[in-house]
Amino acid sequence: MQVDWKYIYKRRKWTIESVVKALSERTWDEFQQFHVSRGIECPAKDLYDQAVKSLTPKPAATTAKKVTQTRKTVKSKGARNVRRKKTTKTGSETT
Length: 95
Hints:
Layout: H1 5-12, H2 16-22, H3 28-38, H4 45-55, E1 86-87, E2 93-94
Antiparallel strand pairs: 1-2
């Protein structure tokens, strides 16, 4: 005698989607084998089909992204790593 699938699913807090996700292969035969091996009645095929349909990813709509121009940041005047040449009062350079 097999246990009703609704009872087991409610008791163990399973959903058809979670059982389908846990299967190694997402096929109807694998789904049936899962239930038979545990002595549970198998849910109807239309419930399985709905679960598989809800799990398949929907293709993302491709829309052009709007590019907004941001402010350019001004470099802060900090320490310089370049050695400055010394100049005399007359403006000539010395090293």
